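Try it yourself: sequence plus acetyl coenzyme *A, in.
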Amino acid sequence: MRACVAGWGTAVPERRLTNAELEARVDTTDEWIVERTGIRERRIAGPSETTATLAVEAATAAIKHAGITPDEIDLLIIATATPEQPIPHTGAFVGEALGLRCGSFDLAAGCAGFVYMLVTGSSLLATGDLRNVLVIGSETLSRIIDPADRATCILFGDGAAAAVLSPSGDDGRGLLAWDLGCDGSATGLLEIRAGGSRLPASPQTIANGEQYLKMSGQEVFRRAVRAVVDSAVTTLDRAGVASSEVAWFVPHQANVRIIDSAANRLGIPRERTIVNLERYGNTSAASIPLALAEAAEDGRLRADDLVLLSGFGAGMTWGSALLRWGTP
Ligand code: ACO
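Structure, out:
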């Protein structure tokens, strides 16, 4: 038994933050941002929008699309780097809004979070004890970005995307192979220093701006390409599939140059690579499912297509998954 995506849904804030607006705010240009990242605009949560409200909107659409009711969901997992609160976990808020009483937990694996959820949900479905697992990548990264830091404020955006995972039939569809990893020697490359047990929040940490995301962009870039390529190759090898057989490559949407460089090394052309970061920027755990859902929605993904997902993120984590596309 394999898990396949039975339904999907997305939610993004209405408010668009364009490169032109950022030009007026920090020392940058539209030209620099487009050339160095590929990003043209991102969505920013309004005052009443949070990680949980975006997750609920995406999940409601995914449940409807899967043709089930909330009481048929047996487990809820939310991948996020921007939880609703430190305590309780975001799943508690989302489960309550959806009317769920099943188990729920948050999963922290940075931008690789969706692939981690796919593997976790799929493995639990394989026990035969669950009917459907709801997985949601949801982020409000605008709440942890220093608006004055031009190295990060141009990159990140807010959004959510959800998928209902259900057991496949005997048609060979679903999750075929995967690879997960984390190199914890690189924790300092992408981090929020304050607010945890190591450095509790204090007036001093706030004065130092340590509540904000800090990133060593060049080093993250270098490692990201390597992580995506190595992890994707491992996954394809495990499935016995050549990259030429992959119909669609759905990478984490961080920087178009990372995507092009990884796709190039994998031998996957741009026409078979899903890219939507020009409209959303980097939405961390929401980025892969947002790209996947858009491609499924507009008909690019066809039944039985081989779809390769690959992400990397803070940790540094990485994760790849190969799916044979199709609903149960
Ligand atoms: N506008 C104009 N100039 C800028 C900007 C900006 N917004 N940001 C940096 N610069 C300057 C730098 O200060 C530097 O100037 P200098 O040469 O005078 O020192 C110059 O541009 C080049 O800077 P680099 O850091 O070398 O630029 P690079 O080409 O590496 O692009 C970027 C920076 C876009 C951050 C890139 O390194 C990147 O995308 N890294 C990966 C980031 C990423 O993927 N993060 C998330 C991964 S995990 C997750 O998604 C949570």
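One thing you can check immediately is this: Residues 28, 32, 36-37, 110-111, 150-151, 154, 190, 215, 217-218, 220-221, 224, 254-255, 258, 282, 284, 313-314 surround acetyl coenzyme *A (CB under 6 Å).
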